[in-house]
């Protein structure tokens, strides 16, 4: 049988859930000895959980890098330190320090990965379902006919941070993903060698990690079956950005994170040498945009991505001679939705047309909605691709923000 050793990488910042995570991980592993766990533990001497954590210091397959909390330099830095404990294990599992696990979770993750026959370099990643420490289950059982995929919502700032959210669905096997999650990722061990954690990315690790992985030739998948749970409601837990002693390091790291993301996406800030933390050479950034329907430069997202359709968004490009097309479309349903919303929450409305090869060939955004649109929308465009569908997308800025999408065949 193939060696089934798994390197599990965990950054932990003063987390009282860490001992329980380790206990649950080992208890529910099919072969606990196959787990080689590397932890960057950022601690404060007065933290009460340290006593319950101490017993794991004697485990031969768990290694700790101990760092006083006021010396912490962020998530990427902690992941990079923990990654140094990798010892050529067959598989790589990247987690946080607050999880619960289904029985035989390790075997299930391996089987999901190995059953992806369409890719030589697959990654399985997602935002896992939630657990709450004060509402513990006696057993964590994978939900049947239930999976989560990560879908884009909107760009939220000029640093290419895309707001994302989980979308419930059903699948019989791992399925294509546009994004990966930093706190639940499973792949082959060579990933951590080819895509080492960037120590200068403070917290927003997922977009840079996703771009680096994709351009190095890794294929992105979501699991169809959940065997790991994550604690999301952590308001009562210590945070790096709340601890005064670590505040300066956080501010410096945040500044560098933004610069590095900008360098990665736009090739700007030439004074920053990304080195081994840059994009790969097997695919380009344009290939990722083509695959996902995300345009970083224009900061727009293809309607198919917003409609939660699986990638690839663009397929079978078909170019024809330039031609002028005229349309007249009744958009009364769009107006009804606008009238039902609070005007202060309406950010803009976007008219988008895609071709029969699913390329976006026209987009116009209206911020003064009622003044510029008519209920029977008339439009004339000249293009070298045949228009097939028109979308009207209402974007809102309320909390929670949302997109309302209306689709018309042309």
In short:
By secondary structure, the chain is an alpha+beta fold. The protein is 23% helix and 30% strand.
- Cα-based radius of gyration, to the nearest Å: 23 Å
In the CATH scheme, what's the topology name of the largest domain? Spore Coat Polysaccharide Biosynthesis Protein SpsA, Chain A
Which homologous superfamily in CATH is the superfamily of the largest domain?
Answer: Spore Coat Polysaccharide Biosynthesis Protein SpsA, Chain A
Mean residue pLDDT: 89
User: Which percent range describes the beta-strand content?
Assistant: 25-35%
Ranges where pLDDT stays below 50 over 5 or more residues in a row are none
Give the overall shape: elongated
* C-alpha end-to-end distance: 55 Å
Main sheet attributes: strand count, strand direction, barrel closure: 8 strands, mixed
Report strand order across the widest sheet: 3-2-1-4-10-6-11-9
- State the total count of DSSP E strands: 20
Helix content: 10-25%
CATH class of the largest domain: Alpha Beta
Number of helices: 11
Overall CATH architecture of the largest domain: Alpha-Beta Complex
Number of domains: 2
Structural class by helix and strand composition: alpha+beta
How would you describe what is shown here?
- This protein has about 400 residues and is an alpha+beta fold.
- The protein has two domains: about 5-230, Spore Coat Polysaccharide Biosynthesis Protein SpsA, Chain A (Alpha-Beta Complex); about 315-410, no CATH class.
- The protein contains eleven helices and 20 strands.
- The protein has helices at about 20-25, 50-55, 75-85, 105-115, 190-195, 205-215, 245-265, 285-290, 305, 330-340, 370; strands at about 5-15, 35-45, 60-70, 90-95, 100, 120-125, 145-155, 160-170, 175, 185-190, 220, 230, 295, 300, 325-330, 345-355, 360-365, 375-385, 385-395, 405-410.
- The chain has an eight-stranded mixed beta sheet.
- The N and C termini lie far apart (about 55 Å).
């Amino acid at each position: 049988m193939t060696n089934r050793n798994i390197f599990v990488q965990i950054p932990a910042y003063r987390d009282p859930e860490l001992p329980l995570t380790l206990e649950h991980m080992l208890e529910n592993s099919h072969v606990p000895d196959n787990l080689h766990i590397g932890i960057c533990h950022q601690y404060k001497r007065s933290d009460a959980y340290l006593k319950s954590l101490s017993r794991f210091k004697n485990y031969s397959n768990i290694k700790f890098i101990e760092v006083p909390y006021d010396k912490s330099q962020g998530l990427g830095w902690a992941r990079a330190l923990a990654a140094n404990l990798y010892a050529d294990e067959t598989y790589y599992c990247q987690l946080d320090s607050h999880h619960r696990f289904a029985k035989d979770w390790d075997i299930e993750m391996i089987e999901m990965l190995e059953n992806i026959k369409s890719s030589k370099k697959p990654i399985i990643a997602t935002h896992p379902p939630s657990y709450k420490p004060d509402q513990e289950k006696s057993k964590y059982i994978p939900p049947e006919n239930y999976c989560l995929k990560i879908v884009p919502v909107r760009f939220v700032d000029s640093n290419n941070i895309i707001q994302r959210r989980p979308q419930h669905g059903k699948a019989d096997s791992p399925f294509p993903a546009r994004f990966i999650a930093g706190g639940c990722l499973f792949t082959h061990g060579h990933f951590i060698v080819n895509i080492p954690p960037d120590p200068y990315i403070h917290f927003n690790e997922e977009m840079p990690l996703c771009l680096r992985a994709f351009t190095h030739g890794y294929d992105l998948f979501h699991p169809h079956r959940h065997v790991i749970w994550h604690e999301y409601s952590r308001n009562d837990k210590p945070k790096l950005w709340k601890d005064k002693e670590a505040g300066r390091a956080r501010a410096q790291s945040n500044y560098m994170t933004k610069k590095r993301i900008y360098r990665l996406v736009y090739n700007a800030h030439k004074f920053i040498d990304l080195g081994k933390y840059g994009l790969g050479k097997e695919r380009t950034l344009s290939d990722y945009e083509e695959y996902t329907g995300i345009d970083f430069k224009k900061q727009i997202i293809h309607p198919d991505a917003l409609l939660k359709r699986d990638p690839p968004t663009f397929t079978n490009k078909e170019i024809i001679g330039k031609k002028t097309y005229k349309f007249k479309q009744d958009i009364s349903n769009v107006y009804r939705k606008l009238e039902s919303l609070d005007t202060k929450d309406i950010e803009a409305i976007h008219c988008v047309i895609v071709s029969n090869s699913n390329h976006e060939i026209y987009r116009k955004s209206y911020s003064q909605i009622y003044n510029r649109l008519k209920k029977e929308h008339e439009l004339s465009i000249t293009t070298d691709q045949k228009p097939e569908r028109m979308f009207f997308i209402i974007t809102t800025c309320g909390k929670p923000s949302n997109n309302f999408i209306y689709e018309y065949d042309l």
